[in-house]
Write a structure and sequence with these properties.
The structure is a single chain. With about 200 residues, the protein is mainly β. The protein has one domain (about 1-200): Beta Barrel (Porin), CATH 2.40.160.20. It is about 10% helix and about 75% strand. Strands 1-2-3-4-5-6-7-8 form an eight-stranded antiparallel β-barrel. The radius of gyration is 19 Å and the shape is elongated.
């Protein structure tokens, strides 16, 4: 519910800010979609292991360039739903995780020429993770549903190709670190995406 309220505030804020951004040279908005990866690392008395899954993820974002080299960016990211089936002796089950994030980051851009540029960003991400575990243990059914909110560092790199002064294609990789951590179980997430960016 808290994440839904945050998204609502963000959408309303974006709607109110759009007329202002339209008048601000250096401001932009964008949309990306691509492959979101989730990896679960487990450590315990029975040994260590890891499993991973991927889903379709997307992001909505906006930002402002102070000059051609430095700026700031913020947005909302949906990393989809990861699903993992597991089996160990008498225990079998299905583990799923949904990850939603709000982030803000400083950006640095390296123009190669008028059409092509490389960029990187460093910031923080506020991640909301919902975990559901449906299992059977020695023939007894069980169900666990938990939610966790965790702040992690955000690192991103990418490239942009300018079709014009206003419209660009963007290719990007973002790493959100450990979005969930509890009792020897760590959930890591990243997003590889492509999209379009529009400058006002």
């Amino acid at each position: 519910m808290a994440m839904i309220k945050q998204i609502g505030v963000m959408v309303i804020s974006a709607a109110l800010m759009t007329p202002v951004l339209a008048q601000a040279e250096g401001a932009y908005i964008g949309f990306n979609a691509g492959r979101a990866n989730q990896k679960v690392n487990v450590s315990g008395d029975d040994g260590d292991g890891s499993v991973k899954d991927n889903a379709t993820g997307y992001k909505l974002y906006g930002g402002y360039e102070f000059n051609q080299y430095f700026g700031v960016q913020g947005g909302y990211i949906d990393l989809g739903k990861g699903k993992i089936a597991y089996a160990d002796s008498d225990v079998q089950g299905n583990f799923s995780s949904k990850v939603r994030s709000l982030y803000i980051a400083a950006t640095a851009t390296l123009p190669i020429n008028e059409q092509f540029a490389l960029f990187a960003k460093l910031g923080v991400s506020r991640n909301r993770v919902k975990i559901v575990d449906v299992y059977t243990d020695a023939g007894v059914a069980g169900y666990i549903s938990e939610s966790e909110t965790r702040t992690t560092p955000l690192i991103g790199i990418g490239a942009a190709y300018n079709f014009s002064k206003k419209l660009a294609a963007v290719l990007e990789y973002e790493n959100f670190g450990k979005v969930a951590k509890d009792d020897g179980v760590n959930l890591k997430a990243n997003l590889f995406s492509v999209g379009l960016r529009y400058k006002f």
